[in-house]
Design a protein that fits this description.
The complex is a heterodimer of chains A (272) and B (302). Chain A is α/β, with parallel strands linked by helices and 272 residues long. Chain A is built from eight helices and twelve strands. In chain A, strand 1 (7-16) and strand 2 form a beta hairpin. The relative contact order of chain A is 0.15. Chain B has 302 residues and is an all-alpha fold. In chain B, 73% of the residues lie in helices and 0% in strands.
């Protein structure tokens, strides 16, 4: 099914400063799929995203886009960083930011054009950010900035959109707003969305697949397949329980006092 | 028109040094202001000031060996820019170390060069010129060099404008889009070094960041978009320079009569005044408030 693959990581391994960050990571992303990249802080989610973006070299394995090795400056991938490095007085209005999504990587001066302005306005409408089009990006709340950055990424017409912890530090209603905008765009435009998060619950209604990262390894599949105590215990290398309450999922470590090393060894022995 | 006689002293429009000062001052003010918008946006005001301190050493060294001070400013400014890129002045630790060690040493050297220079030279006021500039004693032969350098720095920043803005939004994002972030940062620092060296010539090495940061900081309080910010900054820089030149010319008739007040004093004071006034502006931007939680988004979206 190579034709159906947008992005493929094949047996990726990464070592940074002698420390193994990721090992034996394989995953594929298909067009129009909504994938959650889930895992605790420090598990390697950001490193994985950086590999897909071409910002991090791999020690082993290969990164394929449409079946061919990734080239620098691949326009088929759009990116929404977790945090913007800007101050409130940064002279960029929301529409300037979205416009930079078209040609921000180019040299020289660009003259204003009506066609571009309309394209920017349409994009802002699509993500629900039209009403603050003339506000400065630095004066918006976190959720508003996320919408603008999604518009910035999408205006370049990517086929895969990568988002680094877009729900971190958002209140619940902004969180739901962002998730529904993304789900709608993924379905309507056939864009694959991969979103990293430490909490999978806000994504449960929209996630087609989950890539669960822990201790530098991944487990992939549907949530039903992956979010199981055996699978996650093997991944974490220690015993974890999966608790389901009203459609929500909690992954919790074994209580203190459990002989963790023994359980972990046993699990790895059985499952791996 | 007689009233104007008291504002513009006789001979202002016919004076050769005034013509040169106005021409060079305008080009340098525009360059500094536009470069400055990016300096403030990129959070590199500190780098700008460090370059100015180190340029002081270069200027005083050039004076000591009898070379035009602009070349001294430029050589040391550009060298310092390369060094900053190497030690990573963007990082807080890098800044602390640079402030404590490098800049102190640079100004110490400047003190020595100026002392030696004044011992071996009969030029009076050289130390003053290096530290605080003088627009009225520009050598006509250096004017083309100054204007060309200014235009090169301005062109560099304009060509890099979009890439610089994308990078300040997020360096990772820019890198993912194929922008060579470090090379762009280096090219920008070089344009900054040239710009600082130029304003060192007209308002002095010690004050040169005033022309860089002041108009830009004021413009960022008044204008929202990048083009508007650059235009407002340039207008403020040019206005302060012109008015500074006029007042300095007039001040020949102020006490102590016969010796004009320094142009740099007027330029810097006007720029600072403008910045303070931007705070008083009734419709002015309020101080940034911490991001409040987003209000429930419109029904259409959720």
């Amino acid at each position: 099914m190579t034709n159906d693959e947008l992005l493929r990581l094949d047996n990726i391994g990464v070592r940074l400063g002698g420390r193994e960050i990721l090992r034996d990571v394989s995953l594929t992303i298909r067009p129009g799929e909504f994938t959650g990249l889930i895992g605790p802080n420090g598990a390697g989610k950001t490193t994985l995203l950086r590999i897909m973006l071409g910002l991090q070299d791999v020690t082993r394995g290969s990164v394929l886009i449409d079946g061919a090795p990734r080239t620098p400056r691949d326009a088929s991938i759009g990116y929404v960083p977790q945090k913007l490095g800007i101050e409130p007085d940064t002279p960029l209005r929301v529409r300037d930011v979205v416009s930079l999504g078209v040609d921000g990587h180019k040299l020289g001066i660009r003259l204003p054009s009506r066609a571009r302005r309309e394209r920017v306005d349409d994009m802002l409408t699509a993500v629900g950010a039209r009403r603050f089009a003339d506000a400065r990006i630095g004066e918006l709340s976190g959720g508003e900035q996320q919408r603008v950055m999604i518009a910035h990424a999408l205006i370049g017409r990517p086929r895969l959109l990568l988002l680094d912890e877009p729900l971190a530090n958002l209140d619940i209603s902004s969180e739901q707003g962002i998730v529904s905008v993304l789900a709608r765009l993924a379905k309507a435009e056939g864009i694959a969305v991969l979103l990293s998060a430490h909490d999978m619950n806000p994504l449960m209604p929209v996630m087609d697949r989950i890539v669960y990262v822990a201790a530098g390894r991944v487990a992939t599949g549907t949530t039903e397949e992956v979010v199981q105590p055996e699978v996650l215990s093997r991944l974490y290398g220690q015993h974890v329980d999966v608790i389901r309450v009203h459609g929500r999922v909690l992954v919790v470590a074994a209580p203190e006092g459990t002989d963790v090393s023994e359980v972990a060894t046993a699990d790895v022995g059985v499952v791996g | 028109m007689t009233g104007l006689r008291y504002v513009i002293e006789p001979g202002f429009f016919t004076s050769g040094p005034v013509h040169i000062a106005l021409a060079v001052g305008t080009v340098i003010a525009v360059t500094s202001a536009v470069v400055g918008v990016f300096t403030v946006t990129r959070g590199q005001s500190f780098a700008g000031h460090s370059l100015a301190d180190i340029a002081t050493t270069g200027g005083s060294g050039a004076f000591l060996i009898g070379v035009n001070q602009f070349w001294g400013y430029l050589a040391f400014g550009a060298g310092a820019a390369a060094f900053m890129e190497m030690i990573g002045i963007q990082r807080r630790r890098g800044r602390d170390v640079a402030t404590g060690v490098v800049l102190g040493a640079a100004l110490g050297l400047a003190a020595l060069f100026l002392y030696l220079g004044t011992q071996y030279s009969t030029t009076t006021g050289a130390s003053f010129t290096i530290l605080f500039g003088s627009m009225f004693v520009l050598t006509p032969s250096t004017v083309p060099v100054l204007i060309t350098s200014a235009l090169i720095a301005l062109a560099t920043v304009l060509v890099l404008a979009r890439v610089l803005l994308l990078t300040s939004l997020s360096p990772d994002l820019a890198a993912a889009r194929g922008v060579p972030v470090r090379a762009v940062g280096m090219a920008y620092l070089m344009a900054l070094a040239v710009s600082v060296s130029l304003s060192a010539v007209i308002i002095g090495a010690v004050l040169s960041t005033a022309l860089l940061i002041g108009p830009a900081a004021t413009a960022l309080r008044l204008a929202k978009g990048p083009v508007q910010a650059a235009a407002v900054a340039a207008a403020i820089g040019v206005a302060a320079t012109w008015l500074g030149i006029l007042l300095a010319y007039d001040s020949y008739y102020w006490p102590p009569a016969g010796r004009g007040w320094p142009v740099s004093f007027f330029v810097v004071t006007l720029i600072t005044g403008g910045y303070l006034i931007s705070y008083l502006r009734p419709g002015g931007r309020p101080a940034p408030v911490p991001a409040e939680p987003e209000h429930a988004c419109s029904v259409a979206l959720c």
